[in-house]
Amino acid sequence: MSHKTDIEIAREASKKPIQEIGAKLGIPNEHLLPYGHDKAKVGQDFINSIQGNSDGKLILVTAINPTPAGEGKTTTTVGLGDGLNRIGKKAAICIREASLGPNFGMKGGAAGGGYAQVVPMEDMNLHFTGDFHAITTAHNLLSAMIDNHIYWGNSLGIDQRRVVWRRVLDMNDRALRDVVTSLGGVANGYPRQTGFDITVASEVMAILCLASDLADLERRLGDIIVAYTREKAPITCRDIKADGAMTVLLKDAMQPNLVQTLENNPAFVHGGPFANIAHGCNSVMATRTALKLADYVVTEAGFGADLGAEKFMNIKCRKAGLSPAAVVVVATVRAMKMNGGVAKADLGTENVEAVRAGCANLGRHVENVKSFGVPVVVAINHFVTDTEAEVEAVKAYVAEQGSEAILCQHWAKGSEGTEALATRVAEIADRGESQFAPLYPDDMPLFEKIETVARRIYRADEVLVDAKLRGQLKEWEEAGYGNLPVCMAKTQYSFTTDPALRGAPTGFSVPVREVRLSAGAGFIVVICGEIMTMPGLPSVPASESIRLNAAGQIEGLF
């Protein structure tokens, strides 16, 4: 049993030149745009040339509500991709890029763990290929152009009190949540209140991840509503004439990034909207490209299935015409214990009763995912401290729910530890039994869409929306936005809006604090409870222990 850290394992990896990884998927060298030796973007001409290929099978990896015990969703996504390749299938994985903010805050890196990782780990968790910087810059170019338009006479008649386009930064910085700009006199413009969100919450990020090509990207950017006039008429990014320049800034960021797993299997890492405040899936460009090149594509959706999987199905699949062949729900014995009321310090002690009690959370996620008409398998991500009786308790519970749970040991053993899962998932995908359908139709009124998710996925009794917000939803419906899906911004830690309520709570309501129209991305953001679109740093941020060691290697990032 190895006790090496994730970063030690990643550094010892025998990486292959990225051209060899591309060759596994049939991507010729001249269509790979290399960033160093181990990363490359896939060229648009090549992507255009493979559109006639038939699609592989799409497999979604999701999870229970995250706990401090750790679930290992990305680790399982990587492990399953490696496992499918191990059993002779042509498989690729698609995951999101990591945001700098949480890397220096609490969450740490996001590239898997143990012997199921994507490399180069340091690059992926830092600047990678610059996609997030491009998104930040494109977003803030639009912000600058709005204020500039107002400064030079405001011919569009923008009501400065109704500018809804904020600024973004890929950093956790609570001081910027609410700011006043343009202070300091006439030369600096008209003072007004605004604020910053984190880059991964930007509508530009959502658009980049949902756009099918550059023309679609430009159209969606143009559709962004940035402000309103005094008569409440919308002003778009197209009116400000920023859509063309923003597309230019994003042209390279639109191309999917190809890297590799520790076992030298292809991995697309592209896009990174948060799942608690945005739609939490990697880009449609990357997923579609992978489906044209591989027979099986394993992708993940952020946080628990109540957020990531719900948005994957109701937003990404609906908009991109995708249909998952199978879904894997990741759970751990440790997380079951925490949901069953065990404190983090006591997780090492066997407690079968607590495991059983905590399984209610898993059961609800399994049932929810099945309600989309897709077959579900549970992956038990194995920890060294798990006992046989505890693992058996989870397996027995899942069997009672009419599904099956498979023990996975990819963290310790790489693909050898996911052979059983890979074999079962491939069998299910090949049977073609998925009857996928989104949870609600496009033409359902917006408030009913919010209610449908709250009742059917969270199991809430009611949604609390005040008259002003209901009026806002009605106005959007009258303006022609009623057919959009809803993107729920909610805590990831619970089915409710209270992060401390674990398990499978009932008898609660979901308060809606704010609604935002993302006309370019094509959804309505519904902010529930105390969720922040700009996180803060903890009292001891991870950045305090990040440094270069004597050998010039990065320490403390993971």
Walk me through what this model shows.
With 558 residues, the chain is of the alpha/beta class. It has 3 domains: 6-15 and 54-128 and 253-431, 3-Layer(aba) Sandwich (Rossmann fold); 132-244, Domain 2, N(10)-formyltetrahydrofolate synthetase; 446-528, Formyltetrahydrofolate synthetase, domain 3 (Roll). Helices cover 36% and strands 19% of the residues. Strands 1, 2, 3, 4, 5, 6, 14, 15, 16, 17, 18 and 19 form a 12-stranded mixed β-sheet that branches. The chain has a 4-stranded mixed β-sheet with strand order 20-22-23-21. Strand 24 (547-548) and strand 25 form a beta hairpin. The longest helix has 21 residues, at 131-151. The protein is globular and about 70 Å long. The protein starts with 5 loop residues before the first helix and ends with a strand.
CATH class of the largest domain: Alpha Beta
How many domains make up the 3D coordinates?
3
| CATH topology type of the largest domain | Rossmann fold
Largest sheet: 12 strands, mixed
C-alpha end-to-end distance? 20 Å
CATH level 4 superfamily of the largest domain:
P-loop containing nucleotide triphosphate hydrolases
Helix content: 25-40%
Set down the secondary structure blueprint.
Blueprint: H1 6-11, H2 18-24, E1 32-34, E2 40-42, H3 44-49, E3 57-63, H4 73-86, E4 91-95, H5 100-103, E5 112-113, E6 116-119, H6 121-125, H7 131-151, E7 158-163, E8 167-169, E9 179-181, E10 192-194, E11 196-198, H8 203-210, H9 214-223, E12 225-229, E13 234-236, H10 237-240, H11 243-250, E14 257-261, E15 266-269, H12 284-293, E16 296-300, H13 305-320, E17 326-331, H14 333-339, H15 352-370, E18 376-381, H16 388-400, E19 404-408, H17 410-413, H18 419-431, H19 446-456, E20 462-464, H20 467-481, E21 486-489, E22 509-518, E23 523-528, E24 547-548, E25 554-555
Parallel strand pairs: 3-16, 3-17, 4-15, 4-16, 8-11, 17-18, 18-19, 20-22, 21-23
Antiparallel strand pairs: 1-2, 2-14, 5-6, 6-14, 7-12, 9-10, 12-13, 14-15, 22-23, 24-25
Helix pairs in contact: 4-18, 7-8, 7-11, 9-11, 13-15, 14-15, 15-16
